[in-house]
Each structure stands twice: as structure tokens, then as C-alpha cells.
Write a structure and sequence with these properties.
The chain is an alpha+beta fold. Helices cover 56% and strands 20% of the residues. The chain has a four-stranded antiparallel sheet with strand order 1-2-4-3. The chain starts with 8 loop residues before the first helix and ends in a 21-residue tail after the last helix.
């Protein structure tokens, strides 16, 4: 006997497929949400960890900034102490400069020159005197420039003809002014070692007097 199914089977199958599709959509959405939550949690964890590292680096940088300021201040204090120490040493050394100056002038001043006065300002000495001729002044300049370990960079400021005495005793002489530098002991040691002394300009030294008219 033949059986005929008169129920709406097509509609039933359509409903089943629709239900399965909706179920798959819900499962996909749930799975996607779980994946998003997992990825978001992992990223949030990494961001939090990176923020902690950044805060640690900032704190360490702040500590280093403080240490750098302390080191800079310490360096300034050291430089100030060195400057004060150098000033004290220079003062102690400068006490002997008149002795060195007198000793050098005795050795370097040639015959025919009479020194009447000299003045010292800092490390420069102005020498005033009389000479029998221009050649004597030139010889004095050469001696101060080349033969003296304590005196350096002589500079002829002025030379002029003048007369000394009266009547039969009157003599024609040349009045001159020379400016010369005097070294400190540490500058003398540097010069002996071949190092340039402080204040040296590298320009040639004037070491000759003007010719006679």
C-alpha cells in the first residue's frame, strides 16, 4: 500500500535550516567575543606592563637627573677649589718675583745702560732707564727675549734722545721705556718643557730699537 505524506515537509526543512543558521551565528558571535576578550585582555596586560616599565624608567631618569646635578655641582666646587688653590700658590710664588726680577736685571742688563726705575703690574714690568746708544737698548731687548728664563716678551715702548748733567758734565743719552713679562715658576717650568706660557700671543717680539736719525 502506498503512503503519501501530505505534511508541509519543505517548510519544516526550511525552519530547521534557519534554526541551524541562527545557532551557527550565535556560536560564531560567542566565539568571536571570546577571541576579542582574550586578545583585548592580552593587549591590556602588555600595555599595563609597558606602562609599569615606563614609570620605572621615568623614576630612574629622575634619580639620574638628581645625580647629574649633584655631579655638576661637585665639579663646579672642585674647579672653584682648584682656582682658589692656584691663586694661593700664585700668591706664594709671586712673593719671590722681586728677587727673580732683580737677579735677572743684574745678569741681563749690558754695560752702558742705567736703570732708574721699574714698576710691576700683575705679570708685566715697566723698566725705565738711560742708555749710551740705541745699540745698547737693542742688546738689552735681545737679552731679555732670548737669555732670561724668568723674563719674556719684551716690548720697547719709547726711546728718545735727552741730556743728563749740566755744563761740561752734560751728556747726550737715550731715555727708554721697556715693558717685559715676568713668569711665575709654573710658567717657567712649562716654558722649559716647550709648552706655551699663558698669555703668549704667538706674535713676533719687538726686539730692536729704532735706528739713529
Amino acid at each position: 500500500m502506498i503512503r503519501i505524506n501530505l505534511l508541509p515537509h519543505r517548510e519544516e526543512k526550511r525552519k530547521q535550516r534557519k534554526k541551524a543558521f541562527i545557532t551557527m551565528l550565535l556560536l560564531s558571535a560567542a566565539l568571536g567575543g571570546a577571541v576579542v576578550l582574550a586578545v583585548g585582555g592580552a593587549i591590556a596586560t602588555k600595555i599595563s606592563s609597558q606602562n609599569e616599565r615606563n614609570e620605572f624608567i621615568k623614576a630612574e631618569n629622575a634619580k639620574l637627573d638628581v645625580q647629574i646635578k649633584e655631579v655638576s655641582t661637585l665639579k663646579q666646587e672642585i674647579e672653584a677649589l682648584k682656582a682658589r688653590q692656584q691663586a694661593v700658590e700664585d700668591l706664594q710664588a709671586d712673593r719671590n718675583q722681586p728677587v727673580y726680577l732683580m737677579d735677572e736685571l743684574v745678569q741681563q742688563v749690558p754695560e752702558g745702560i742705567y736703570l732708574r726705575e721699574f714698576k710691576q703690574e700683575a705679570q708685566r714690568v715697566a723698566i725705565y732707564g738711560y742708555a749710551q746708544s740705541n745699540e745698547r737698548v737693542s742688546e738689552l731687548l735681545r737679552n731679555l727675549s732670548n737669555n732670561s728664563p724668568w723674563l719674556e716678551r719684551p716690548d720697547l715702548i719709547e726711546i728718545k734722545s735727552t741730556g743728563l748733567g749740566q755744563g761740561k758734565d752734560a751728556k747726550k743719552v737715550f731715555e727708554f721705556t721697556i715693558n717685559v713679562g715676568i713668569r711665575r715658576p709654573r710658567d717657567k717650568d712649562k716654558a722649559a718643557a716647550g709648552e706655551p706660557a699663558p698669555g703668549a700671543t704667538g706674535k713676533p717680539v719687538r726686539s730692536s730699537a729704532p735706528k739713529k736719525p
